[in-house]
């Protein structure tokens, strides 16, 4: 499938004339705030192009977002301060409306001139949001002529403002959503082969579905981090005191079998950095995965493993990455993660691979390696990215299909 074919599977801002229309735009403004200050504005910055484009085309922009996990209206979780944060980055006023639905919201929307932008109050102040309650969806739909979803990070939830609205109003993907869907499609749905998946992190149990899906889709599956220990144990190796889900060794073997049947090569660490304590700068040494001592724990992949993975990386065209190779928060057990991340970033810079990464800790690990900005695409979505890796349809995305 070509890029344009993938794009055309979804309705985007290219398919609609927004001039003079009331455009309900679902954005992700659930940013970290400390003492009233936004500590990371990545999500705000990500949705600016969509807001700017609609506004410049003469649409009336009505922003919908959730903030935190309120149980009913909660002044501590008002979006009011966030409106000012959006305005300062957008370079134009963003009015705050202290209501999500009802007369106050309707009056504010009715007063909008083309190009103006407002932010409605936290959608989760209403129980109907998370229940996708038809009455709440209808009350929201009254405020707009069209609906634009630019919040991929919440696309795995079928909530009123992330999914319900798409069935009530003509619905389109915003630019941030579009970029995300296209990057993910290029990585797994219609990738250039060979495709490598790198899956690390703590536990097999939290990534079972993801591994099961990936072995069917990729040519090489590199397993690292704590979860690799369960696979090593399944091969009868001693992993000492390492983080290991011994009760899942059978499951690990099933995944290996599934991979074999699908023609997917599994790559496990061949050596490891071991220590006797789980802490930064704990005394450590490199050992073969065949000779981990009883009192030792594997905290990182060793240099031979890094070399092996890096050599494999040079043979593929596409990489999808989730999870670190070791306990990267504790120096020096970040070395394998940093080395492989930089190797992938170098190959991306050289135009030899497409690299896509995502999921909570992965973004932190790639930032730590100074590699995130050099990857082709880094998804800021946690849960939605993981569900996509698991092969699950994302309701918020599905609702935007033609
Ligand atoms: P996840 O959220 O599943 O991606 O797991 C990320 C966490 O796995 C990070 O906090 C790492 O410190 C941890 N981790 C990775 N490798 C190991 C390891 N060998 N032993 C213990 N924890 C690890």
Low-confidence runs: 1-7
- Strand-residue proportion: 15-25%
- Tell me what the CATH architecture of the largest domain is: 3-Layer(aba) Sandwich
Bound molecules: adenosine monophosphate
Fourth-level CATH superfamily of the largest domain: Phosphoglycerate kinase, N-terminal domain
Helical stretch count? 15
Give the helix proportion (percent range): 25-40%
Strand order of the largest sheet: 5-6-4-1-7-8
Write down the Rg: 23 Å
The main sheet comes to: 6 strands, parallel
Instruction: Using the coordinates above, name the CATH class of the largest domain.
Output: Alpha Beta
Gap from first CA to last CA: 16 Å
Number of strands: 17
CATH topology of the largest domain: Rossmann fold
Question: From the helix content, strand content and strand pairing, which structural class follows?
Answer: alpha/beta
Mean pLDDT level:
95
Task: Return the domain count.
Answer: 2
Overall shape: it is elongated
């Amino acid at each position: 499938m070509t890029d344009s074919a993938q794009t055309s599977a979804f309705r985007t801002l290219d398919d609609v004339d927004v001039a003079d229309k009331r455009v309900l735009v679902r954005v992700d403004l659930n940013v970290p705030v400390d003492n009233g200050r936004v500590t990371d504005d990545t999500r705000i910055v990500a949705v600016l192009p969509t807001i700017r484009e609609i506004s410049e085309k003469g649409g009336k922009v009505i922003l919908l977002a959730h903030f935190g996990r309120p149980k009913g209206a909660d002044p501590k979780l008002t979006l009011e301060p966030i409106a000012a944060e959006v305005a300062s980055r957008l370079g134009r006023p963003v009015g705050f409306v202290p209501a999500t639905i009802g007369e106050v919201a309707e009056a504010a929307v009715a007063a909008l001139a083309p190009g103006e932008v407002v932010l409605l109050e936290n959608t989760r102040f209403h129980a109907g949001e998370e229940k996708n309650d038809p009455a709440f969806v209808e009350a929201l739909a009254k405020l707009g002529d069209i609906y634009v979803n630019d919040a991929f990070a919440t696309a795995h939830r079928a909530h009123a403002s992330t999914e319900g609205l798409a069935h009530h109003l003509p619905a389109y993907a915003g630019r941030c959503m579009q970029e995300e869907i296209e990057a993910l499609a290029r990585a797994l749905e219609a990738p250039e082969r060979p495709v490598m998946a790198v899956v690390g992190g703590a536990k097999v149990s939290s990534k079972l579905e993801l591994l099961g899906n990936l072995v069917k889709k990729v040519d090489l599956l590199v397993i690292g981090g704590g979860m690799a220990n369960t696979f090593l144990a399944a091969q009868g190796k001693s992993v000492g005191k390492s983080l290991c889900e011994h009760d899942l060794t059978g499951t690990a073997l099933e995944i290996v079998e599934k991979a074999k049947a699908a023609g997917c090569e599994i790559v496990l660490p061949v050596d490891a950095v071991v220590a006797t304590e789980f802490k930064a700068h704990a005394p450590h040494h490199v050992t073969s995965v065949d000779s981990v001592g009883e009192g030792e724990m594997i905290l990182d992949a060793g240099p031979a493993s890094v070399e092996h993975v890096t050599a494999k990386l040079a043979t593929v065209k596409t990489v999808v990455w989730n999870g670190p190779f070791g306990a990267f928060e504790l120096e020096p057990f970040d070395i394998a993660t940093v080395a492989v991340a930089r190797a992938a970033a170098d190959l991306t810079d050289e135009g030899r691979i497409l690299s896509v990464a995502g999921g909570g800790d992965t973004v932190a690990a790639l930032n730590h390696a100074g590699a995130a900005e050099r990857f082709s695409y880094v998804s800021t979505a946690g849960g939605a990215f993981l569900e996509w890796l698991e092969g699950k349809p994302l309701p918020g995305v599905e609702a935007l299909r033609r």
